[in-house]
Amino acid sequence: MKFAIVGCGRIAKRHIEAIINTKEAELYALCDNNRNRLDETAFVNNLKNNYEDIEEMLKDEKIDIVSICTPNASHAELAIKAIKAGKHVLLEKPIATTVEDAERIIQAAQDYHVKVTAVHQNRFNEAIQKTRKAYEDGRFGRMSHGVASIRWNRNKPYYDQDSWRGTANQQDGILMNQSIHNIDLLLWMMGPVKSVTGKTATRFRDIEMEDVGAAILEFESGALGMIEGAGTIYPSNLEETLNLFGDKGTVCIGGLAVNKIENWRFSDDFAAEEAKIISEQLQNPPTVYGYGHQLIVEDMIESIQKDREPYISLEDGKYAIEVILAIYESSRTGKSIKIRSKVAR
């Protein structure tokens, strides 16, 4: 299937690599309104179908799937254009910067009968898949609480590389841009959220959004969740962790990209099972992006071929946005914020 990528910035490299390494995928076209960046990416990848205007690109009937890799606030508009042109869409996180825009994308995908997936690639991490199966099998029992932390370094050069980074217009804070992956995992494992209480701060970076944030979630089950997101870790990226605690089980996942099981305990005599699980793991990925982008591409192709929904839904993408926006609102108002959607499961 032929893929087109819209936006040739930092994350596009992961999509390009994933498409090239997928047997049934072909990198066919690029689109970017920055001509220099477009030409450079096209040259490196030997591509001839290159556009500065997405509407021109979408006229090409050979394109099957469009990857949206642009700044946050443009995601909804570009995704809807691609959907209306009959293209399937891989939509980078956050899928939108408002709940209303996320709902517009969901409605458009339904109206035009195309497949659209939210790029939350860490769901495909081997450690996460094993933990999800344990959760679905009921091995945790009743959940006590879960903790999602990102402790990374996003320094001045990171924010200086693009004018949109760190801006309020793009909702580009550490929670919405980086921690959203881990927040998505916490919601996926722990279920629907009843309310959110949060606080954000801009401590070190000269940006409009937060470089550190924290929140407490009350889940409808009565369990609690804790979120820590920081781009202020000195001197470099430290870890991304997800810790889950039930009355019958404990799992702690760490590593650079929430990819390494560190504790796996579902019985009083857990040592043998834990040692086996830990010994079978892959090494750390080369970057914080992990290995999941190729699996997202493969899942999209299979969902089209088999006419099923993608593994990661737009509703999942919307739910993560709603929770993060509630953290921002709580920080502004000093109040706990109720969550109205019930999609997380």
What level of helicity do the residues show? Answer: 25-40%
Q: What gap, in angstroms, lies between the N and C termini?
A: 31 Å
Count of discrete alpha- or pi-helical segments spanning 4 or more residues: 11
Per DSSP E runs of 2 or more residues, the count of β-strands stands at: 14
> Could you name the ranges where pLDDT drops below 50 across 5 or more consecutive residues?
none
Order of strands, widest sheet: 13-12-11-7-10-9-8-14
Helix/strand/pairing category: alpha/beta
Q: Nearest-angstrom radius of gyration?
A: 20 Å
- Can you tell me the overall shape? globular
Q: Give the rounded overall mean pLDDT.
A: 95
- Which percent band covers the strand fraction? 15-25%
Biggest β-sheet strands, sense, barrel: 8 strands, mixed
Question: Order of helices and strands, N to C?
Answer: EHEHEHEHEHEHEHHEEEEEEHHHE
Summarize it.
The protein has 345 residues and is an alpha/beta fold. Helices cover 36% and strands 23% of the residues.
List the helices and strands and how they pair.
Blueprint: E1 2-6, H1 12-20, E2 26-31, H2 35-45, E3 49-51, H3 54-57, E4 65-68, H4 75-84, E5 88-92, H5 99-112, E6 116-119, H6 126-136, E7 143-151, H7 156-160, H8 174-190, E8 193-201, E9 212-219, E10 224-230, E11 239-246, E12 250-254, E13 260-265, H9 271-279, H10 292-305, H11 314-333, E14 337-338
Parallel strand pairs: 1-2, 1-4, 2-3, 4-5, 5-6, 7-10
Antiparallel strand pairs: 7-11, 8-9, 8-14, 9-10, 11-12, 12-13
Helix pairs in contact: 1-10, 4-5, 5-11, 8-11
